[in-house]
Amino acid sequence: MIEIKNMSAYYGRVQSLHSVSLSLDSGRIYAVLGANGAGKTTLLRSILGLVQATGTVRLLGEDISSLPAFQRSQRGIAIVPEGRRLFSDFTVEENLRIGTINRNDFSQIETDIEELCEIFPILKKRFHQPSRNLSGGEGQMLALSRALLSNPKLLLLDEPSVGLMPIAVSSIFKMVEQICRKKKLTVLLVEQNAKKALQISDYAAILEQGTLTFEGDVALLQSDERLKAAYLGGH
Ligand SMILES: Nc1ncnc2c1ncn2[C@@H]1O[C@H](COP(=O)(O)OP(=O)(O)OP(=O)(O)O)[C@@H](O)[C@H]1O
Ligand SMILES: [Mg+2]
């Protein structure tokens, strides 16, 4: 579905990703784990074309490596960035509609918005209020909904659990899993909360200093004592 080959990324002369190759199947969730500064955000930004990078990205067979970010997003890559980046003066509704900007199936858009408001009732309750009034967890629900409204094929999530209570993390993760399975969406989930992330993931990838040091089944990761100790606290 998506094929990343030999991707290297640079901030000026500093190289932050070293020839990362990763192949993602549709309808699957991939957890990306790694220490602070390992290159997780850089990997997501490189896939979207927001960082100076070399290597190839293929989406459904098409080489999109030379396309600018907005064209990659038009082709079905959406991101929920670190820190959410909502338009805080815009209402919840306006934020949601930003997600639909590349769509013209207008009646389906309304159905999709209604469906998300059922999943996350707080969005309906605050529909006409500025998004700055939302709490952290509510803002995360809005950011996720906005990304889903673009009907992505690939959803990039950058630490969706940051600042959330465990119960909010569980409900957001459950939602991601349900939507992914239902819509055959591919998800790349960057998380500090490795245990929670792995509960919903099919595969895991580990980045260490910009290099991919593990890629495989979640069960395989969980059976490796060294990796378990490093990323799952040894339990
Ligand atoms: N805009 C930037 N300019 C220069 N260097 C950067 C920039 N953004 C990131 N880096 C560097 O690239 C490396 C990877 O950063 P990245 O943000 O991808 O890490 P991360 O794995 O997402 O970390 P965290 O868990 O803290 O979010 C780090 O060494 C970081 O200092
Ligand atoms: Mg990061």
Short recap of the structure:
With 235 residues, the protein is an alpha/beta fold. It has a single domain (2-231), classed as P-loop containing nucleotide triphosphate hydrolases (Rossmann fold), CATH 3.40.50.
Your description of this structure?
- The structure is a single chain.
- This protein has 235 residues and is of the alpha/beta class.
- The chain contains 10 helices and 10 strands.
- It has a single domain, classed as Rossmann fold (3-Layer(aba) Sandwich).
- A 6-stranded mixed sheet has the order 6-7-8-3-9-10, with helices on both faces. A 4-stranded antiparallel sheet has the order 2-1-4-5, covered by helices on one side.
- α3 packs parallel to α6.
- The longest helix has 18 residues.
- The chain is globular.
- The model has no long low-confidence stretch (mean pLDDT 92).
- Magnesium ion binds next to α1.
CATH topology term: Rossmann fold
Bound molecules: adenosine-5'-triphosphate, magnesium ion
Helix content: 25-40%
Tell me how many strands there are.
Answer: 10
What structural category arises from helix and sheet content? Answer: alpha/beta
The topology string of helices and strands comes to: EEEHEEHEHHHHEHEHEEHH
Specify the overall morphology.
globular
Global mean pLDDT: 92
